Amino acid sequence: MRLLTFNALFTGDVRPRLRALGHVLRESDVDIVCLQEVMYRAHVRLLRQGFAHMAYAGSVVLKGGLVLLSRRPVTRWRFVRFPLAGPLRPEFLMRKGALIAEIGDLVVVNTHLSANRDDDWSPGNRYTVVERAELDVVARLLADVDLERPVVVTGDLNLPRGSAALEEFRVRAGLTDAMAGDARPTCRPTPQWPHPPAFDHVLTRGVTARADLILQDRMALAGGRSGYLSDHYGVLAEIRPGSDSKPWNP
């Protein structure tokens, strides 16, 4: 099974970029797509061709900006909102949270944590405290999942790979980082931010996963233009049953 996580960026030339992304996804062999920052239900129509099954919450504005697309049936799903905490910020309008879906035996959690506007991920930072509380919500969701079921937690976690808060969550939840040791950024470097961290992650339990970065290059957009699909890269993971786990139905 192939799973993609991608922050689609809700500002700028949104519709042309989403239309181009939808074409890429339709022609791909990706089974499950976990998207962040898809803010409007109308935009899902630009992405869904080729995917018979979906999960998202919200009639006009999507809760958390989260969308899950799947070529395989989604048997159950729900959205759990994070508590509003920390400094007052426009980000509250996104109603961030976690989208948890069951696809066969596989449980997928698509999420987007609060941004750290201080770029300081030390334990005492005011935004790190917020992110820890959000990860606690995800950890409690996972605690209710049968340990024999395979799990993927993915999305824009807004925490660098190896940060203390992310590592504590990963260990607590029994998750493995599919890109452990990979120092490449998952955000596009800019002159203002030449060395961004890896914010986009695929964390697994009960399966093995290999992951790599995709959607890094400029692409053709409508009107003969070209551009990047987002300020993030995509992370594509190939997921297989673990050698010490029982067979599972994908």
From TrEMBL:
Coiled coil (residue ranges): none
Stated name of the protein: Endonuclease/exonuclease/phosphatase domain-containing protein
Keyword set, alphabetical order: DNA damage, DNA repair, Hydrolase, Magnesium, Metal-binding, Nuclease
Domain of life: Bacteria
Single GO MF annotation: nuclease activity
Source species: Actinoplanes awajinensis subsp. mycoplanecinus
Start and end residues of each Endonuclease/exonuclease/phosphatase domain: 4-232
Keyword hit for Nuclease: yes
GO BP of this protein: DNA repair
InterPro entries, per the entry: Endo/exonu/phosph_ase_sf (IPR036691), Endo/exonuclease/phosphatase (IPR005135), TDP2-like (IPR051547)
Cofactor: Mg(2+); Mn(2+)
KW Cytoplasm (keyword) present: no
